[in-house]
């Protein structure tokens, strides 16, 4: 997120805020220039009050990029760091988790190397025995959260809890789209849904 968003979020919430460091979408194989951007983003996030950082980096053969991760972790110190769902794209999740633990990551966010946390639940449960914080994420909703938490023994989870909100624009130009053909409609906005967050929080509190 831009520093402005981080500043406003920090003013509005009391929970710890971890900032995602990801210079672009797509894969997790980064160029030297992208690494420069990531390091700059980490410094800015720390400057503007981030409580932790979140990133992931892989080699071309689907392994943890230990050299890059070590360099980025050094910039993140002393803040805690989570390895994000780049983990779900690794060649061998067991070996990858051992690597992440040895590097010093405190959390690993994962869907269990499957299309959603529910489908990857068996791997999440197996790997969660190796690390204290192994929060499941990916496709988590109020309909499946209880099953995922009970099945994974996780004490944390990750989800977007979003819904679509219609734009307030009255004049609309249907002939122009500000992005690729598969991007979200211009006049539909994705927002965090307060009702969903409260429902998910209540389910989690009841289980944990």
TrEMBL record:
Transmembrane stretches, start-end: none
Keywords annotated in UniProt: Copper, Cytoplasm, Metal-binding, Nucleus
GO terms for MF: copper ion binding
Gene Ontology cellular component annotations, sorted alphabetically: cytoplasm; nucleus
Places the protein is found: Cytoplasm; Nucleus
Signal peptide segment: none
Record-linked Gene3D superfamilies: Copper homeostasis (CutC) domain
Subunit structure: Homotetramer.
Protein task: May play a role in copper homeostasis. Can bind one Cu(1+) per subunit.
Family under the similarity heading: Belongs to the CutC family.
Name by which UniProt lists this protein: Copper homeostasis protein cutC homolog
